Amino acid sequence: MSTLLPARTGNAALAARDLRHVWHPCTQMQDHESIPMVPIVRGEGAWLIDADGRRYLDGISSWWTNLFGHANPRLAAALADQAQRLEHVIFAGFTHAPAIELAEALVRITPPGLERVFFADNGSAAIEVALKMSFHYWLNQGHGEKTRFIALTGSYHGETLGALSVSDVALYRKTYAPLLLTPILAPSPDAYEGEPGESPAQLAARRLGELRALLERHAHETCAVIVEPLVQCAGGMRMYHPDYLAGLRRLCDEFDVHFIADEIAVGFGRTGTLFACESARVRPDFMCLSKGLTGGFLPLSAVLTTEAVYAAFYAEYNAGKAFLHSHSYTGNPLACRVALETLAIFRDEPVLERNRVLAAHLAQRLAPLRDHPHVGDVRQTGMIAAVELVADKRTRRPWPAGERRGLRVYLHGLEHAALLRPLGNVVYFMPPYVVDTAQIDHLVDVATAGIERAVA
After folding, report:
1. 264-303 pLDDT, tens digit each
2. Structural domain contains residue 1
3. Residue 301 assigned as binding residue
4. Would the annotation count 165 as a binding residue?
5. Could you say which residues are annotated as the site Participates in the substrate recognition with KAPA and in a stacking interaction with the adenine ring of SAM (predicted)?
6. Domain of 238, in residue numbers
7. What's the number of domains the chain is made of?
8. What DSSP string describes 433-455?
9. How far apart are CA 438 and CA 123, in angstroms?
10. Of 52, 59, 77, 345, which is most buried by a Cβ count within 10 Å?
11. 167 carries a ligand binding annotation
């Protein structure tokens, strides 16, 4: 029996088959009694095409993974070539050229001092690795009392139990709270939360003072501080000043705790530099990468760390210091090969320079929304932009979550050839880097009309 659905099968038939058996992520499945399930059969650059031939401009890079377009021929060719050589091999005691070359390439392009690469297969797994590795480092150093982590309010790091433990988005965390570790929460430097007249840099300085106070009380029991550099994505595209990262690095050094940078969503050019940490010229102790690492083709993640961390695990077998973490698909050759080709596109093409032009155009197009009576904020960092919808502009009073205003924007987008998937009442843009200015215009025009529909 063929595993490929026949081309003549349309949206309605495929959606009905899907809903008989498939359970989708981050979804109340009952919603699909009224909200369409959209079967996608083909991708083409920044476009997705459904089974009825309708096209949708992918304004969110399919959950922030896609960098260089769907069905990118260069990435597809690398994948096809590797599939004819080696699809997978156990990564304990064995290795292969794509993983070796990818590790070498990542060490070259990430902040100096990150010398060791541990592969996993998704973003949440990378966070699990970093948390366990930080804790285990301190244990191996004779500091078993360090068992806690500091995270920012409004943070999101994934949905496995460890990653969820250092997250602070109630939608994801509340139900599973009895199963989770309890993090120490530091106030986010989110510029939207600043006092009237307070600049993002001033707010960052104030929040660093509050973090210092937390470390003075808790550093003795703290393994690491974990942050999403510059943009707290799933928490509502909250953005902050790079000074916070520089200050965080200094505080981590002063109080002898690790700095974990979750660059899973913000890495690979999203914020204007290749990695968000570059904006503050800092090197974390652990850098977690995924999503754009393979250009959106295959699941893969990597945790980069220092030689000092690696050395704390390097000992005779009987010392019991080895890092115990594994995934069946660790270092998968197909994913590593596609990741290498993704990095080669950055090397061969002026990606970041082009992104700056696109980001400037996006900023110009979004600027008029600042005056909208139901827009509390328009913010942007590189190729990530967000529009905060509010019930009252003066007080920034939000719409009640149960009214699902953002859903109205999503549905309007589907009706007008755009994939927009707001985070609650935050309409955001994170398109693939292959969009042109006309496509950005289309996304903004559709979103603007969707906002009018949402606040009506």
Report:
1. 999 999 999 999 999 999 999 999 999 999 999 999 999 9
2. no
3. no
4. no
5. 26
6. 77-348
7. 2
8. TT--HHHHHHHHHHHHHHHHHHH
9. 32
10. 59
11. no
